[in-house]
Structures
1.
Amino acid sequence: MLATPENSVAGEWSSTLLSSYSNLMLYSAYDISVRTDRSSGSQPTRPEESTIGQLAAAPFSSAIGEEAFYRGLVYERTLRAHGRPAARLLDAALFPLVHLPTDMQRGFKPPTVAFNVAWRSAMTPAFDATYDRGGLPLSVALHYWSNVLLAMSHWWFYGGHM
């Protein structure tokens, strides 16, 4: 099928829906996990820590959803309308800030939140450059490994306990 403005917009909105659904599922599972653990008095766990399969799936599903939304929709639309510098600047500001409420909800300490903002601020230009060179598949791959490394750093910061 040839790309037309009509099906291109439909593709962008389907990416948005995929991103929203992916994040909703992850955050819903996280909320259920935290509520369950708090009611029993044990340490909160995240769904991505439950099994090895989920440990691999959580960073991948969030990478797909976030890349589809931030690079495939926000970055791409801003790039077309205002050029590359504006698109990268908006993305570099928006992407780390959107994650702040989640980091705070998870109960991360202020130094960890600051580290997360710095990490995402540094990785966002890399995601953009990777997207420019190889499209969504390449930026999803980089985003996945960024998520894995960030999760490993959290594990290390908290001495094996998150």
2.
Amino acid sequence: MKNLFAWIAMTVCLAFACVAMAQDKPAAAPDKPAAEAMKPAAAEPAKPKVDKGDTAWMLVSTALVILMTIPGLALFYGGMVRSKNTLSVLMQVFVTFCLIAVLWVIYGYSITFTGGGAFFGGLSKLFLSGVTGESLAATFSKGVAIPELAFVAFQCTFAAITCGLIVGSFAERIKFSAALVFAVLWFTFAYAPIAHMVWYWDGPDAITDAKSLEVVTAAAGWLGEHFGWRTIFFAMAALLFVVALLLVLEVKRNPLAARRGAGRGAIRQSLARMPRLLVHPRLRVLIATGYVEGLFIFGALAFVAIYLQRRFLVGPGLAGTLVTAYAAGGMLYALAARRAVRRLGERGLATLGGAALFIGYLGLALSPFLTLTTLSIGAVGAGFYMLHTTVQTHVTQVAPEDRGSAVALFATFLFLGQASGVWLASHVVDGAGMTPVFLAAALGLAALATAFRYFLSSGGT
């Protein structure tokens, strides 16, 4: 199952778009003045270059996704059900894959990877109209393209495997015909609009000035365009309110919390213990480490999305999607955390975490490639969790009798560091751009990890 998730996560690092076609300029009028006729004609835009290596990799990736589904996914789900239903599950995955592949050719590619609206594309490429062996699909590099047929096949496999994954949720509990009807509806009204909103754009060659960049940005940021930029903050406030309400209800419902005196009295007691905890020298070092950690990591991380938009000319939707590589890096570390702790120990984790943070932010500052930049974001996520969990573990051990107050104090300074980091980084960005912020984060976090390793080596004193 972990391997399956790893294969699916690879899609986060891939970028796709539709072909940008250049139109011929009209011929000069016969009565054009001689002086203007003598002016040199404007050079025609260079034809995008098709690289054999890019095309080969796309075809290999297409074949791998097919193998992931047939037989990979089919056999995986077949092994999870009773033996009498194995053949049924195999056929459900196989037929779902084939059905979505047919629908992709008929209308799926057209409504996903053509312009039209905020949620769906147009119908100009029904039955792959206009897609030939000579047509090209844009990439994220200016002047570089891939054959559109290869792009169609590659995206087709992901649409099909996504619908095939759903088979496991209703295995043995739904009729075969109902499964196919659901696959058609989900593909049309869930997968296609999401793929259109996240992945479709005209490619970097279509961005020639500030106005064209604004058009691409507005198309990708459909949420802000249709609902306003304040909407996301209202949504976050509502979500946090719900979380706070659930916590209050849990405190009132949980008898263990009631016996421990939960409420305003317990909060006052926790706040009263915090000044005493600051006297502890080890805790002061750990709190300072948390503050500096928040300052460098999150001060720079706040500008990653806008950096991707400006550096690689991607829209807000795709930039936000790529930033999720930070979470993916943390999840990969979480899967390997137990083994990493046994093999590396605390000092090894601190060292490796600092190295990952240094490499990640250095890659953000210097990488000219979007894929490498996305991997750098993932390295930052993994490095943060390696270093942060090691620091926080020591916080819980400093004062076992006041563990809750110690953790709360540590978290307070961590969040203060985040706010301070964003404030300082914003002034640097205004004056010198975002690259110095990432370089400072790389060097600062490497120094912090080195100092924390020395702290551990000296017995935490």
3.
Amino acid sequence: MELPNIPSEVLLENLVKAEDNLKRKLVQAEDSVKSFVRDLKPGETPEVHEAEGTGKVERAKILADGYSMGKRFFDCFNFTICMTMTGILLYYIVRRMTAENVPYLLPYTALAMLTADFLSGLVHWAADTWGSIYIPVIGKAFIRPFREHHVDPTAITRHDVFETNGDNCMLVNPVIGYMLYRHVVELTDDQAQDITCIHTFWLTLCLLVMLTNQIHKWSHTYFGLPPAIEWLQKLRLILPRRHHRIHHVAPHETYFCITNGWCDYPLEVLHFWTGLEWLITKCTGVQPRADDMKWTVVPSKQEATATKAKKE
């Protein structure tokens, strides 16, 4: 296969643009890491962050060890309840569906896929950009996995089905439970037929939200994926591996949507995430990704030695 004949002027221009973009990102990363120092009061000294003075392997272990037995039980419980309720609800919806509902299935499914992708980006952006693992309750339970993922992106491929999907199952369980209650207790067959399409949208949305982290896991899995999963990735029906690599370029500030990635480019063009970050920083003074940078930016040997001495 012949390579395209690209003029040297075009290549040079693209290289200059790429260099400028990299410099901009590095400056933003440095500002985020050092932002907490600017907010200190006179005479106040910053607390030593747990990640400071440690290497990448040590940080990955600290974060991985934060997965407790209590959280494990919680994930197993949520996953089991979700699978059970989803199976029963799917039975009711399919049994009560009529030929009149069929033409609406495709547009409702497409809308659910688009909505799930945007919601995945919103949650992913919020957990990546704000907060820390030291926030009571939600820190170690829900923010910790996002920090671990940036320190060790392949860790998710070693998580089993419960750890991978437990949190997302917890999010959709109330919605699935409410719909199931309506089908089992309140609705007759005639009444259910009138809202079957709406419930199909909500069930599809819940299924996609529930599977989003599993899809995310597949986007980091480069060996042993079933051919059907690779086929869905190539069709962009689920998140492709190459597409998701863009997010993992430090400082992890773009392409947050991880169900299928459909919303990433439009939101980037609109500067949606940077606009939200600017607004929140303007109102609160909190810098985006300040905590995430403390975990992902590996210190020099001199900085590591100085921080270790300070801890001792």
4.
Amino acid sequence: MPVILARVDDRLIHGQVVEGWFKRMKIDRVIIVSARVYADSAQQALLAWAVTEEIKVDFADGKRAAEMLRQPPALKENICLLFSGLPDVEDFLNAGGQITSLNIGGLHYAPDKVGYSATLFLDAEDKKILQRLKEKKIELETRVLPTDVAEDVFAVIDRKEKSNG
């Protein structure tokens, strides 16, 4: 399968992603899947600048990313799908995109979100999307770096909710 990493990180490109994930996974191409960034050429320029020259960077919304992966050149590359949020993941899947697992690497604090770990903050809609992804049999794990121990997202949520009892 051409997609060797599908990750949600609201910060998108940063040191942990480039140095930790891209190098370890030998990523050749990253497709940043974000409707917001896809419509913003200034954001695209900044994000492309943050990646080494060896890695190709593409920008897409969910529909465009699904189309890109159906094209033959994608079959010869190690691809990372980097989503800015869970709605972008769902848009990608609804457009016919396919993934078997999803790393939730960073959904950070926002006033309307509940914290489940230092890097996992969710609102009610995020939790509904996660449930729908689980129903599609997509493995949902959370960790910051590939060397960290992966944890099931729902185990993290359940643990926090039980501790708040």
